[in-house]
Design goal:
Elements lengths: L5 E12 L2 E8 H4 L4 E5 L6 H13 L24 E8 L2 E8 L2 E4 L6 E4 L2 E7 L15 E4 L2 H12 L3 H8 E2 L1 H9 L2 H12 L2 H39 L3 H17 L3 H66 L1 H47 L2 H4 L7 H27 L1 H29 L2 H19 L2 H58 L1 H8 L27 H39 L4 H78 L5 H45 L5 H7 L3 H26 L1 H4 L9 H64 L11 H24 L4 E6 L13 E6 L4 E3 L6 H22 L4 E2 L1 E4 L8 H16 L3 E5 L3 H6 L3 E6 L5 E6 L2
Parallel strand pairs: 1-14, 3-16, 3-17, 10-15, 15-16
Antiparallel strand pairs: 1-2, 1-4, 4-5, 5-8, 6-7, 8-9, 11-12, 12-13, 17-18
Helix pairs in contact: 4-25, 5-25, 6-24, 7-8, 7-23, 8-9, 9-21, 9-23, 10-19, 10-20, 10-21, 12-18, 12-19, 13-18, 14-18, 15-17, 15-18, 18-19, 24-25
Family: Belongs to the SMC family. SbcC subfamily.
Pfam families: AAA_23, SbcC_Walker_B
Subunit structure: Heterodimer of SbcC and SbcD.
Length: 1024
């Protein structure tokens, strides 16, 4: 693969990210000069943070899908320092720069608490040849956007890989692929599916299986519907048992044949429905004929009934006419009596009016007498020669004028009590206000001293609270020092144990090395005997070539076999691996102990604990002072507010006191004047009210007498007018006197009865005369006779016959229609069944094929598994290109169709390692630690090749190979480094993440990460 197709990382700058509190820049261009660099540092110092920063800059997420971006914000960063990752990379399309900040919590710039700093991104395309100095980059480049979605799309388009593919190809984690190498096929399937995203094939197989179930359910439902439709057809046609059995058998035979199902069912249905249609047509014709006969009989019955009704009506009218002729004289007398009663009825209101007027005149005269009896003597008895009406009017008018003059004094007298009460209330209010003002003056005298005390307490609390930040910093430093003492003690114990383990491992490695050396020497010494033991007479000697063997070497009884040497070699390799692991642990622990000793300084743990307790107590006092400040500030504000409110209340009280005193003075003057006026107004009476009441009574008595006199005059006039009207009315209606009119009068009920008798006679006479003159009755012959019963009997017989034939026709039509509907349903069900059967076949075959079943799938592999198997074969082929080199041609990976056990599903993802020394297939779990490492590395590189090839052939120019080199012997390590050298020759830069000392000595270019005594890590790039 040519270098022009690679993606290269150029520079990485990060600030306040993970354990890095400061700003650090990694120049990958400088590291890439040698093609191989080392990324080393203690565990937890921040090596993985660099990879997370690269992935976050490109995709906005860290490398691990389970990890959160929250860990990107450095816990050591100050609140005003922004967390940022700035990455420059190059692809064939050009040079790109992306700058991202994660979302994190920061302190609010105003007030207390925290707020969220939102994630942001900016991206640029840089001109070719741009100086990548971070200090000058902000001034160059074409912006690509600052929205998360648009920048994400531009970056993925430029790189050519999504985040998952990028992570799988930039970091080759030995541990994960060692697990992949040794995993069961089912576990291997899960990992490959995640990497290659083949869930779509499983979803396709699941959907086809669901479609098969749906088609099976549809077929079953169609069969049930067809059977149900056949039963409905039999019932609708009311077939006999043998006919019903024939229909069902014919339909079942058509279903079994399959071909021509719809046509066969349609033929069976048509045979039955045609018979029923013919029967229904005959029944309808018979019903029509019977209905015509019934119509004729009904018409004859109607004619006979009508003629008989006319004859009976003529007889009734003739009888009623004879009765009317006999009562003619009585009717004439009633007519005369009705006329006289109606005339008396007209005069009756005049008689009643005259009687009412006379009665009213008598009552008015009595009213005048009573009014005079009730009036005072000086009003009821006028002076001699004076008219009564004039005298009464003058007396009433003078009394009314005197009463009007006293009306105002009545109200004044009534209000004297309330005025006296108001004077007392005003005096009480004035006294209360004077007492309240005296109390206010005493309260105000104490306020200045109280406020001064509160202000002094507040200033002291603020002074203590101001040192809270300093006290918190002192406590954090003291706690960190105590924790460092604890960690140092634990690290020193671990270091002592590790040194002892390293000494033991060294002794064991020396013993294993001696044992291997001795066994190899013994085997070489006895090798001639071993070769001689294999020679048969006539065979050529592998050493000298002679076919003669006069003195073959003898194979000793204690001869060392190749298996014993190999076992000793394995034991020696394991002991050396244990020694390297122990040495690495010692190195790590020594670095940690040194760092912790630098952090704790020269003090003891007791000193650090005492300082921690003192700092904690000082912080508690400052925090308590903060609480006091929070309490005292509103208390002082409340104190001042109370003072201002009391001052406002006192000012209002002073103003109110002045007003109340002025009101009291005015009210007293008004009361004195009113009391003097009332004394004058009551005169000889006890009160003004008593005098006023007496005057009102005289006015009322005068008005009563005057009203009675007026009523008497009106009654006299009305009586005279009514007598004149009565005389005129009697003369107009022909009565000589009022007594004659009263004798002719009838009450309303008798008059109405007489009127009804006269009117009823005339109405009956007119009705009978008109009825006998009607043409239908006048035209009837006197001797005409009709037979209604015979006509009714004939009509009933015809009606019964019509109803019978109509019922038969209705039943025939209903059976025909029901059979037609049922037949259509049967044909529709047959059509649905044919469609369902036609659909179910292909779907079922595809579902079997993709689900791992069916006769066409010999190995019972699902579609998803088959696709994964082909991808797996590509990975194995790519891995073997490197494995044959690293293992000196010894090992080769092959895919196997064997199951791990009888219960496992057939995945086609089993793996075997061919050992070309023995030409035997081995289980990958039998490989040694070093063999597992480089085989896993080859798998990882092969996986990266396949993933990038599927992504369009874009490879990453910078790779990171994770830990695992410590398990290799020197020869294999050289082979692995040589293979990594091949990657360098292809234009890639390889970063090795390792603690192996020999790698530190052999790889000069490196990124060194070291934690400081204060906590945050530092980063140093050593290149060139």
């Amino acid at each position: 693969m040519g270098a022009e197709r690679l993606m290269h990382l150029r520079t990485l700058t990060l600030q306040a990210i993970g354990p890095f509190a400061g700003r650090h820049t990694v120049d990958f261009d400088a590291l890439g000069q040698a093609g191989l660099f080392l990324l080393e540092g203690p565990t937890g110092s921040g090596k993985s943070t660099l990879i997370d920063a690269i992935v976050f800059a490109l995709y906005g997420k860290v490398a691990s899908s389970e990890a959160s971006e929250d860990r990107l914000r450095s816990a050591y960063a100050a609140d005003d320092v922004e967390s940022v990752v700035d990455l420059v990379f190059e692809v064939p399309a050009g040079i790109y720069r992306v700058r991202r900040t994660p979302a994190y919590q920061r302190a609010k710039r105003r007030g207390s608490g925290t707020t969220t700093a939102n994630a942001s991104v900016k991206a640029w395309r840089l001109p070719a040849g741009t100086d990548l100095d971070p200090a000058t980059l902000d001034a160059v480049g074409v912006p690509l956007g600052n929205r998360l979605d648009e920048v994400g799309a531009e970056i993925q388009k430029a790189v050519g890989l999504d985040r998952t593919q990028f992570v799988q190809t930039i970091v080759l984690p030995q541990g994960e692929f060692a697990h992949f190498l040794r995993a069961k096929p089912e576990d291997r399937r899960v990992l490959l599916q995640k990497i290659f995203g083949t869930e779509v094939y499983e979803r396709l197989a699941s959907r086809l299986a669901e479609m098969r179930r749906e088609s099976d359910r549809a077929s079953a439902a169609a069969r049930v519907a067809l059977s149900s439709g056949a039963s409905q057809l039999v019932g609708a046609a009311r077939l006999a048992d043998d006919e019903a059995a024939d229909v069902r058998q014919a339909i079942d035979d058509a279903v079994l044949r399959g071909d021509g199902l719809v046509a066969a069912v349609r033929s069976v249905v048509a045979g039955r429905t045609d018979e029923l249609d013919a029967w229904a047509a005959g029944a309808r014709a018979a019903a029509v004929a019977a209905d015509a006969v019934r119509g004729a009989a009904r018409a004859e019955l109607d004619r006979s009934t009508a003629t008989d009704a006319l004859l009976r009506r003529r007889t009734t009218l003739r009888t009623e006419r004879a009765a009317l002729d006999a009562a003619a004289d009585l009717n004439a007398e009633a007519v005369l009596q009705l006329a006289a009663a109606r005339a008396a009825q007209a005069v009756r209101p005049l008689l009643a009016g005259a009687e009412r007027a006379a009665t009213a005149l008598d009552a008015a005269r009595k009213t005048v007498t009573a009014a005079l009896d009730g009036a005072p003597d000086d009003i009821a008895t006028p002076p001699r020669g004076t008219d009564l009406r004039t005298h009464v009017q003058a007396a009433g008018r003078s009394s009314a004028e005197a009463a009007g003059a006293l009306a105002r004094l009545v109200e004044v007298e009534a209000g004297l009590t309330s005025r006296r009460r108001a004077v007392r209330r005003t005096r009480d209010t004035v006294d209360d206000l004077v007492a309240a003002l005296a109390a206010d003056d005493a309260w105000f005298a104490t306020r200045p001293a109280g406020r001064a005390a509160l202000l002094t307490e507040l200033e002291e609390a603020r002074a203590r609270a101001a040192s809270a930040g300093e006290r918190a910093s002192d406590l954090a430093a003291a706690i960190e020092t105590v924790a460092a003492h604890t960690d140092l003690a634990a690290a020193e114990r671990s270091l002592a144990e590790a040194l002892a383990a390293r000494t033991a491992a060294g002794a064991a490695a020396a013993v294993a090395l001696d044992a291997e050396r001795d066994l190899r020497a013994a085997r070489i010494a006895g090798l001639a005997g071993e070769l001689a033991a294999r020679l048969d007479p006539g065979d050529a000697c592998p050493v000298c070539g002679s076919a003669e063997h006069p003195a073959k070497a003898v194979l000793g009884a204690d001869h060392v076999s190749a298996e014993q040497v190999e076992q000793a070699e394995t034991a020696r390799a394991a002991a050396e691996s244990s020694l390297r692991a122990a040495a690495e642990r010692c190195s790590v622990l020594e670095e940690r102990v040194g760092a912790l000793r630098g952090r704790v300084g020269s003090g003891t743990v007791q000193d650090a604990t005492q300082r921690c307790d003192e700092a904690r107590a000082a912080l508690a006092r400052s925090r308590a002072a903060e609480t006091d400040v929070a309490r005292l500030v509103p208390a002082l504000d409340d104190f001042d507010a109370q003072t201002r409110a009391r001052e406002t209340e006192r000012s209002a009280a002073v103003a109110r006191l002045a007003g109340e005193r002025a009101t009291l003075e005015v009210t007293l003057l008004d009361l004195d004047a009113a009391e003097a006026e009332v004394v004058v107004g009551r005169g000889e009476h006890p009160t003004v009210v008593a005098r006023h009441a007496e005057l009102l009574e005289r006015v009322a008595a005068s008005a009563t007498v005057l009203d009675a006199l007026v009523e008497q005059d009106a009654a006299q006039d009305e009586a005279g007018r009514r007598q004149v009207e009565l005389a005129e009315g009697l003369d107009a209606h022909g009565f000589d006197s009022a007594d004659d009119a009263r004798a002719a009068a009838l009450d309303a009920g008798a008059l109405a009865d007489l009127d009804r008798v006269v009117t009823g006679y005339a109405t009956r006479l007119d009705r009978v005369t008109a009825g006998l003159a009607e043409p239908e009755i006048a035209a009837l012959a006197d001797d005409l006779v009709v037979d209604v019963d015979a006509a009714a009997t004939a009509e009933a017989a015809a009606r019964l016959e019509a109803e019978r034939t109509a019922g038969e026709a209705r039943v025939a039509e209903e059976r025909s229609a029901a059979a037609a509907v049922a037949g259509d349903a049967v044909v529709a069900s047959a059509t649905a069944l044919a469609d369902a059967l036609g659909t179910a076949g292909p779907v079922s075959r595809l579902a079997d094929l993709t689900g791992g079943g069916g006769g066409d799938n010999a190995r019972n592999l699902s579609l998803a598994t088959f696709v994964l198997m082909r991808r797996f074969e590509d990975v194995v082929a790519a891995a073997n290109e490197r494995l044959l080199v690293m293992s000196d041609g010894r090992f080769e990976l092959v895919r196997s169709d064997e199951k791990e056990d009888v219960r496992a599903r057939n995945t086609g993802l089993a793996m075997r390692v061919i050992d070309h020394r023995t030409e035997q297939a081995r289980d990958p779990r039998t490989l040694s630690g070093g063999e597992t490492f480089y085989v896993s590395l080859c798998l990882a590189l092969g996986m990266a090749d396949v993933v990038t090839a599927e992504a369009g052939g874009i490879d990453l120019g910078t790779l990171f190979v994770d830990e695992g080199f410590g398990s290799l012997d020197p020869h294999t390590l050289d082979a692995v480094l040589a293979e990594l050298g091949r990657l360098r020759a292809g234009g890639r830069v390889v970063g090795v993440v390792s603690h192996v000392e020999v790698l530190k000595q052999s790889i000069a270019d490196r990124i060194e990460i070291r934690p400081t005594a204060a906590g945050p890590s530092t980063l140093t790039v050593r290149a060139g």
